[in-house]
Batch of 3 targets.
Target 1
Amino acid sequence: MLPRFVGRLGVADAVTIANAALGFVAVVVAFVDVHLAARLVLLAAVADGLDGILARRYGGTPAGPYLDSLADVASFAIAPAVLAFVVVTDGLGGFETLTLEFLLVSVVCATFVAMAVARLGMYTAYDTTTEYTEGVQTTLAATIIGAAILAGVTEPWLVIGGTALFAYLMVSPIRYPDLLARDALIMGVVHVLAIVIPDFAGRTFPYALLTLGLAYMLLAPWLYWANGSSIADAEYGNA
């Protein structure tokens, strides 16, 4: 007897499920090699963009939107929170007892996960527009965290402060427009290069990805609104 999903899920759904698996592997690897884990989170973001492209090309399934949000919980809620936790605790010298710093870091990372889950649920239920979304996308937050780690930005209190800021921004009412197709392509190329050759020329591509991600996060709500073909639900889409 075949599993229930055979014949019901499409190729885009298979990529979405792979995205969830990458998120789990990133969590496990983070405690051994945080830089490899960061690359896996960025790879999950590529898979997140690819499933949207495949769904538009070959058609989606009724389960697609639900699978996408579930996968994003693993890859863009739990995994980046674990990355931040590992970087901060390592930077502070580790903890052998339940200190105040340990509890603070744990609460911030847990809040990040909670707000990411809330955003993903709200997006699936309410964000039906193809022009913008409210709040920073979980994919973008995870990408910035991963790119920062690969770029060597690992100062503990800067990382935990950024994680706390993302926890708010993901559920904020700030409107973020969809990327135009040309800009999504540029960011996608830089994204892939940051994964494949992160140490090239003094970590050029992680720095470039971090810069592009921060520029979009800080400036797009006010300066990016423009006419042109956009890519909704793509690599830097709305989820």
Target 2
Amino acid sequence: MEADVPILIVAGLVLAAILVGITVVDFRRMVIPDFLNLALAAGGLGFQLLVRRDNAPIQILAAVSTLAVFWALRHGHFLLTGRIGLGLGDVKMLAAAALWISPLLLPVLLFIASAAALLFIGGQVVAAGPAAARSRVPFGPFIAIGLGCSFVLEQFVGLTLGVL
């Protein structure tokens, strides 16, 4: 069942507002507050329940799996390097993002987020020199870009990869 236009407009505005909030806070404080991740998760689950109620269990499973995989990657990176490379807020945000889009679009989200982050860092290196490549950069804003683009691709362009 495709979503009605008013539902898509409201969902898109809610998603955009939450993603802007996450982006602003993460750039300023290098942290994604739990209340914003909870709002993102609740909004995504609510959207799925309104639009595709039958797929809600799959969306929840995708979110839990995403949380487990990225927590394991975060922990593994820490064990190997002694440094935290991916913040816990980013891990929670990825899990919450999984509630908004088809699980098959998660790689698209990750590709867009990673490419945007690399372009941002490349721009910093060009503008400020090679030392900028070692500076800490929040990943939440780039996850936000990936989620926003993936949501638009799925809902407005119709990219669902023909499976779900």
Target 3
Amino acid sequence: MPKKVQTRMKPEDRERQLIEVAQRMFIERGYQGTAMEDIAQAAGITRPVVYKLFGNKDGIYLACLNKAREVLNSYIIEYAMKGQGLEGRLKGGIEGYFSFVENERDTFRFLYDSGAAVAGPAAEAASKLRFDTVARIALLIQDLKNVVSDEEIIATAHALSGAGEQLAKWWLTQAGVPKAKVVNTMFNLLWAGLGQHKR
């Protein structure tokens, strides 16, 4: 049987390919169920190439996580910036989040379902990335800074992040529920809670 010839790629192209392959495998098998050898075989290369680019499994997992968070954050910010004032930015950011869920389902699954068994430095880095998303959400409600404390703004951002994740997981099990409905549900819940501070 002829030996499989590896296709040469530029390092940045190979890295992008491996991130795509690894993310798919982490979704299918979870963090613990995915080995570097599996990723290498799926990409049609040798294991040393994966180690050279990412160091170890934590390295490639975190590269996948960074990429996924970038995609999520870009959706939130892009949609939020289309809105005017606190109300417009909030509703836009929520619409951006659920547009991400709708259009990037595999990436959503990777972010919220694949890393349950991650521990140590990788878990710490993953937590920092999640907090970065929360910090971006907090920026959307900075109009409240003159009437509530910074801690309350951050707490509200964390609550919004957690509620959005759970609502998204429910939504993905409900065929036929339009995105506009979940966006309005999420927005109305938050807007009512901010009632005494609205401008």
